[in-house]
Amino acid sequence: MDVLFRRRREWIPHWRQRHPNGMPEQVTFGTTEEEGIEFAPDGRSFLTSIGTRQSTLWIHDSRGDRQVTSEGYTFQPSFSADGKKLFYLVLAANSTSTIQRGSLWVMDLATGDRQRLLPDYLMENYTVSQDGQRILFVAAPETQNRGVWLAPLNGRSAPRRLAASEGLQAFFGTAGEVFFAAQEKDGNFVYRVKEDGSGLTKVTLPHSVFYLYGISPDGKYLAAWVNSGRTDDTANAVGIYPLDGGSPTMICDACGGRGGSDEPGFLSWSADGKFLYLALWRDTPFAIPLRAGRILPPLPATGIQSKADMAALPGAKPFPVPGAFAGPNPSIYAYAKLTAQRNIYRVPVP
Q1: Which residues in 145-166 are b (16+ Cβ under 10 Å) and which e?
Q2: Measured distance CA(342)–CA(36) in Å, rounded
Q3: 33-73: per-residue pLDDT in tens?
Q4: Does a structural domain hold residue 290?
Q5: Which pLDDT belongs to residue 43?
Q6: If DSSP codes are grouped into helix, strand and coil, which group holds residue 281?
Q7: Which of 83, 244, 267, 318 has the fewest CB atoms inside 10 Å of its own CB, making it the most exposed?
C-alpha cells in the first residue's frame, strides 16, 4: 500500500511512500506550493490545489503607507537604526526547508534604490549593527556556508565565520561581542564570542533555550524562550536573563514561541532603548515606552498572562497592523501582504 503525503511546509511537493517501510519518492516537482489531497476512486491519480504565494512588503512612515517590493516572496524586514534603509530577505527559488531562507537585499527608502547583498549566502536569520556597517547572520545549514557569520555591508572584506555549528539566531551585543543560539546534540545553547572570532564561550543559563529573542540595548541581558524541563505551562516561559548571572525576570509563564518569517519577533527593543516591543502569543505587537536606564516596564506580579495584560502596561499602544515589524520608533514600521493564486490539478500517480 502506498501512502501519499505532503511535508510540513507548503512549498514542498507531494511525496509517496510504500507502507510501512518503503523509501519516500517525490511525486510532484517545481517551486509552486500544494495544498490538499483527494484520491480518485481507482487510486491512479489525485486532485490537489497547486499555485503560488507572493509576499510584498509595505512600510508606514510620515508619508503614510506604501508598497516597497513587488516581485517574489519577501520577508523578515528590518530597518536601519536611522530608519533610512530597509533590509529584507527574498525567498530562494529552490528553497525546500521547513524554515524560510532567502537572499539579503537592502533598499534606500528615500530613493527606492535596491541592492542585493552577499549573493553567495542564503540566510534564515540576520541582524544589522546599530551603526549600519555590519551584518550578523545565520546561513542555511544545508549549504557549504553553514554557521554564524559576520560581514561588512560595504563589501570591502569577506564575511568571517564566527561559528561552524548550526546557528539558530544571532545578535550584536556591546563592546564588540556577538551572541548566538546554536543547536547541539543535547539541546540549544547560547554562546558569546568577540567579533574577531576569539573568546568563544557558552553563556551560563539555568536551562537550554528554544529561541533567543535578542540582547538588551545596554548589552547586559538576553531575552529567551527557555526549556525549563517541566511539562506544565512553565515549559513555555519567556524571560530576561542577566549576563552577570543574577536572577532572571519572567515575562510570562506560557507564551513562548518562534513566530513565523512573516511575523515580528515576540520580544525586542528599539535601537535607542526607548521602547520594548511585545508580540506574545503571535498577537498584535505592542510598543511600550521605557524609563531611562530600564529595559522593562513595571510588570504584573504574576507576569503577563494575556493580551489584556500587555495592553495594560504603562503607555502600551498596539500597532495598527497585526504583523508590524517595528522601526526606530513606533511611528515607522513594515508589514507583509500575502496573495495567492491557485488552481485544481489532477496528478497521475506513477
Answers
A1: bbbbbbbebeeeeebeebbeeb
A2: 12
A3: 666 677 778 777 777 766 566 889 999 999 999 999 987 89
A4: yes
A5: 72
A6: helix
A7: 244
Give residue 174's region: left, alpha or beta (phi > 0; psi -120 to 50): beta
pTM: 0.81
Question: How many C-beta atoms surround the C-beta of residue 100 within 10 A?
Answer: 20
Q: Write down how long the chain is.
A: 350
Task: Write the pLDDT tens digit of every residue in 85-130.
Answer: 999 999 987 555 556 789 999 999 999 999 999 999 999 889 999 9
Give the residue carrying C-alpha cell 524571560: 239
Residues 192 and 114 in one domain: yes
Q: Answer yes or no: is 139 within a domain.
A: yes
Burial of 192 per CB tally in 10 Å (0-12, 13-18, 19+): middle
CA distance 156 to 324: 33
- Could you tell me the CATH number of the domain that includes residue 311? 2.120.10
Which of 181, 248, 256, 254 is CA-nearest to residue 214? 181
Name all contacts of 295-304 with Cβ < 8 Å and 24+ positions apart.
295/216, 295/217, 295/218, 295/220, 295/221, 295/240, 295/269, 296/240, 296/249, 296/251, 299/249, 299/251, 302/253, 303/250, 303/251, 303/252, 303/253, 304/251, 304/252, 304/255, 304/278, 304/280
Is 219 in contact with 174 (CB distance < 8 Å)? yes
